[in-house]
From TrEMBL:
It comes from Alsobacter ponti. The keyword Ribosomal protein does not apply. It is found in: Cell inner membrane; Cell membrane. This is Ectoine/hydroxyectoine ABC transporter permease subunit EhuD. PROSITE patterns: ABC_TM1. Residues 22-210 form the ABC transmembrane type-1 domain. Its main location: membrane. The gene is ehuD.
Length: 220
């Protein structure tokens, strides 16, 4: 019954719309995560390379984007930049801002992994005059990956949940669909609960995967 605390018929009726929002949420998260992990790696290498001007600039950019609220960054790109001729669609804005914000947070994770390598290994590789690509492929990445991957996995989970903020710029992701369903029927319990359960299910499954990855890396 519509007057009951929980209306199963209504809950099932909004599920198709919620699943469309859920699919968009996952898609935007994966694209943003790919941008964050790749940009963050480049960012961290430049930051640690000690290149004059470029490395301090990379340090400042990472600190700035990590130290300012994600919501403000989102609003600036979506509402302020169009006044200066720079405009993106809601989905593109969400991917760009979430990706850059995630990249700034991943810089410290990559730094921790890279600095975990003994300094002697870097010096030995330089002394042997090994190609840089070979050093990264054979020496650096195999040792850094077990340290960094679980932390990066947790970052992607956080980005998945942070994507709910994209509803504030009209992205039709999961929270936006749940809110619209509630506004249309004046029943928010079912759509918001179902949306929360979808977030929880994915986050829980992903967290278990990250823990397995961490345990596997710890046994190496």
């Amino acid at each position: 019954m519509r007057g009951a605390l929980w209306d199963w018929a209504y809950a099932w009726s909004v599920m198709p719309d919620l699943m469309r929002g859920f699919a968009l949420t996952v898609q935007l998260t994966l694209i943003s995560a790919a941008l964050a992990l790749s940009l963050g790696f480049v960012w961290s290498v430049v930051r640690l390379a000690g290149v004059p001007l470029l490395s301090p600039l990379a340090w400042f950019a990472a600190e700035f984007f990590r130290g300012t609220p994600f919501l403000i960054q989102l609003y600036v790109v979506f509402y302020v930049l169009p006044n200066y001729g720079i405009a993106f669609s809601p989905d593109a804005t969400g991917v760009l801002v979430l990706g850059v914000y995630g990249a700034a947070r991943s810089v410290e994770l990559y730094r921790a992994g890279l600095e975990s390598l003994p300094q002697g290994q870097w010096e030995a590789c330089l002394a042997l005059n090994l190609p840089l690509s070979y050093v990264w492929r054979r020496a650096v990445i195999p040792q850094v990956a077990p340290v960094v991957l679980p932390m990066l996995g947790n970052l992607v989970i956080v980005m998945f949940k942070d994507s709910a903020v994209l509803s504030t710029i009209t992205v039709l992701e999961l929270v936006s669909r749940a809110r619209d369903a509630g506004l249309a029927s004046f029943r928010f319990l079912e759509p918001l609960t179902l949306a929360g359960l979808l977030y929880w299910a994915v986050s829980y499954a992903a967290a278990r995967g990250v823990r397995r990855l961490e345990a596997r890396g710890g046994h190496r």
